[in-house]
Specification:
Rossmann fold, 2 domains, 6-stranded parallel beta sheet, 38% helix, 15% strand, globular
């Protein structure tokens, strides 16, 4: 069986890209189609020889694009209007199965039943649906705010129409969580099956770290630095609770967040898996201040024996056992999170209980469910 994988953007490391790594291992001969590919950031995860880029990538090769720093060169906001046509231009007629990993556009590829198309949905594009007003409000700030807002309103309207129509193209949909399943039903009016993203086996391969038994009094965030992750809430809450905060990750919102940070907030940038394991294990708690579609971070944290404090919304409600492997704060505000931080006591959480919860989301279980879904699709 000839298989192709599709993923919108390979320009930064995140939960969706971690899932794609596992899919790429399950189908090692499958090429990976993507709109934009930053080899400098993701070449070690996805080797260049497996990548098939879109025509948009060709625009980045000639100067002056090649001379721009990576965050500007791969800024996907510059290409939003071009993405639908780019994914529709790919030809998959030589394949038996296409497995797409979609957060915005990958579900819109055209296969017309040959090959079959199984789509793993991390979420329908949130900026087109439930986060539209937040995005437009931020865009409206500044000197050119009204012009940017007008442009995005028109762009989002056109893309929303395309998105709703393209949602009928996959033969079957897999949702990353019950929350994502709810959005698929609400926005696309389609049925889907839930298969939770897995934690990689490497997180549970070793015995619990001694650091988890002697945690350091700091909070940890592991995240791409983008506005909807609401890291600004965590910075303000840690400042108010006088709790040191370490932030691991990269993203376009870093400069703004650095301006908000106090002296006890440290930006660590990209961290390897081994570095993250030590950071998780040493932390008093891992923070998840924004609404997540699913969220692998709580599972990684629990695998290292550390509880998570998360907003009471979205995917973490399906992974965190309140009072046993973490806590929730009720409102996306500084005050709500700061109140939980003041009441939080690390010694009330058993590291082994945290690891036991993480084991329920194993790679083996995920692989079996994906292979079952492929088998069912190809035999109907």
């Amino acid at each position: 069986m000839k298989v192709a994988l599709v993923h919108e953007l390979l320009t930064m490391r995140g939960g969706a890209e971690r899932v794609l790594r596992i899919l790429a291992d399950l189908f090692p001969a499958a090429p990976i189609y993507t709109l934009l590919y930053d080899e400098e950031k993701l070449g070690d995860w996805f080797p260049r020889e497996r990548i098939r880029t879109s025509g948009l990538q060709d625009r980045l090769s000639p100067t002056p694009y090649a001379l721009l720093p990576s965050p500007f060169r791969f800024n996907h906001h510059l290409y939003l209007r071009n993405f639908p046509a780019a994914v529709e231009a790919w030809d998959f007629s030589d394949f038996d199965l296409v497995l797409s990993s979609s957060s915005a556009f990958a579900h819109g590829i055209i296969t017309n039943g040959k090959p079959r198309h199984l789509c793993y949905v991390h979420s329908p594009a949130r900026y087109l649906w439930d986060r539209t007003h937040d995005v437009l409000e931020r865009a409206g700030r500044g000197i050119l705010g009204s012009l940017k807002q007008w442009h995005l309103e028109k762009t989002f309207h056109d893309l929303r129409v395309w998105d709703a129509e393209a949602a009928d193209r996959p033969d079957r949909l897999i949702a990353a969580s019950k929350e994502v399943q709810r959005r698929i039903d609400l926005y696309w009016r389609r049925e889907s099956k839930v298969i939770y993203p897995p934690i990689d086996d490497s997180w549970l391969a070793e015995n619990i770290s001694p650091y988890a038994l002697r945690p350091t009094p700091y909070a940890l965030i592991v995240s791409t630095l983008v506005p909807y992750k609401r890291i600004d809430i965590a910075i303000a809450a840690c400042n108010a609770a006088k709790l040191p905060l370490r932030i691991a990750g990269e993203g376009p919102d870093r400069r703004r967040l650095e301006r908000l940070a106090g002296p006890a907030v440290h930006f660590l940038g990209y961290q390897t898996e081994e570095q993250l394991k030590k950071l998780y294990a040493e932390a008093a708690a891992t923070l998840l201040p924004g609404e997540e579609d699913f969220g692998l971070v709580p599972l990684e944290s629990m695998a290292c024996g550390t509880p998570t404090i998360a907003l009471r919304a979205g995917g973490p409600l399906e992974t965190i056992v309140e009072g046993e492997t973490g806590m929730f704060f009720d409102e996306p505000t500084t005050e709500s999170l700061a109140g939980i931080l003041r009441a939080f006591k690390r010694e009330q959480f058993d590291p082994e209980a945290c690891r036991g919860q993480a084991r329920k989301f194993s790679r083996k279980h995920f692989a079996e469910k994906i292979q079952q879904a492929v088998h069912e699709l190809m035999n109907t």
